[in-house]
Structures are given as structure tokens and as C-alpha cells.
User: Fold this.
Amino acid sequence: MGDGRQRDELGAAFANDARRIWEVAEPIHAVIYFHPAVARFGAEAGCHGFWMSYVGMRAAPLGAASAAAITATFYTFAPRRIARSVPDVWAYSSPARLLDARLAAMDDVLRDLWGLEATGAAVRRAAELAGRAAAAAVTAGRPMAAANAALPIPGEPHLALWQALTVLREHRGDGHLAALVRSEVGPCEALVLASATGRSPAEQSRMSRGWSEGEWAAAVRALAGRGWLHPDGSLTSLGAQASAEIENVTDLLAAGPYRVLTRPERDELYETLYGLAERVAVGGGFTWPNPIGLDWPPPSALSVDRLRQPAELGSTDG
Assistant:
């Protein structure tokens, strides 16, 4: 019995680290969505507008996938939102062009946000740690993680770091969708539930993911019918419990890759990513509130007695 409790405690520790590392890694990955300079690279690759660029760049690792396949893997987007860009994006551009475009965009933007530190010792070390975790990620049943993990690792440290964080982010995302499916929470319902918990603004989530007011209202009624929401859309205690369980399962499913890192290495990765993410946030590469449901500073930083200061990035000898 003691061994079982010890395993449970160890699993909870890895799950907690998976969540707090995601909180500081997500702003770095999400530069590809939020930084205004990225639009130019999408346009140069043939995309027409923000959403075609978003869908094309994010889905490019899957190849020229169908709208149905992309809708399934993105999950919370209304089918019509994806169908506005697919299959047209593959006629205007191609997965190969968009993969090149997103790396070119990240090269330009991260160098601008991080300056000389983009190729410095701290970023190289973070890329090594995140790369080891990403390489250990089991991607069976996780299509977005598998597709990104199969891409070549860029030679430049800031791009290698971004690529590793993208694999880990999509690995977590695939697991989150599994947790939603397990709890029988549909795509629009997932957004409604996240909004009811206060993680993301309802109207922003509804409009950005392409759901109609009627579909949103139907999702509210469905969750109210399960006792998770009050009729006005506010969260019940049962809904709070269900949401917390989904997040707990997500964290547990995201923990696997981090088992290859020691506790000091996981702490080191968190500290370095915090400092890098702070520069992203200050530089306008990550905006909030957002449909991702993550603010800055992240909850892991606000849980201590005082706001921690961003970690020093170290020397810039590269």
C-alpha cells in the first residue's frame, strides 16, 4: 500500500510540473497566433487572411488534411470555421510552404523579442531540456503531437526550443481532448464550460471559434441539463467539480514526457521559460484574455506569497 501511495504522489508531482511548465511554455508557442508580424509570413506563403494562416500553419504538420480531419483534431472550432479555409489553403499554398513560413516567422519574431539571448546559453539549455521531454512523448493516439514530433529539429536554438514546446503543447492538447471526450463534453460545450469557470471570455471564445449564438445557447442548455451550469450559464458546484476533474486528467496525461527530466531540471526549465515568456508578454507576442484560457503572470507565479521575478537568462555566448 505504501508503494502505491508513493507512486500516486510521484504521478501527482509530474502532473503538477507538466501544468506549470505549460503555463510558461504556452505564451512562447502562441507567438505564432498572437504576434502581428506573423501575418506577413502567412500572406507571403499564399494565405488569405488571419484564419487561413492560422489553420494552415497549425495544420501543416498533418499534410494536406481534409476539413473534417482538421476540425476533429482542433476540436473546439465550429466546422464552418475550418471549412472557410480548407481545402482552399492547400490550393493557395502547401504544407511545406507553411511549415517554412511558420519557422521563418518564429525566427524573425523571437529574435526581435529575445535579442541576443535567442541564441544564448540559456535558450540552448532550455532547448536541450524541452527537446529531451518532447522526444520522450508517446504520441500514439495523439495526432497533432505525432505530426509535430515527426518534423526535423531546427538547428537554431530558439527554433529548436519553439519546436519542442510545440510538440509538448500539442501532446497536452491531444490529451485534453481525450479528457473532454471521456467526460462527454462536446466542442462548443468545452468552450462554454471554460468560459463559465472564468478562464476565457465567452463572447471572444464563441466568435473566434465560429459558433453561432444559437449553438452557444444550446451548449449552455445541455450543460445545465447535466447540472453543471445554472440556467443563466453560471457554474454550479457540480460543474466546478467536473471541470476540475477534466483539468486533472489533462495534467496527468501530459506528465509522461517530463519523467525523463529530474526535478532540478524541471525547475530549471520552468525558470528559464518564465523569463522568456515574460519578454514575450511584454513585447506583445502573447495577449490576454484569450480563448486559450491562460493569463499572464500565470497561476503558478501568483500562487506564491509575492510575484516572483523573471529568471535571468544567463550569458549570450552564442
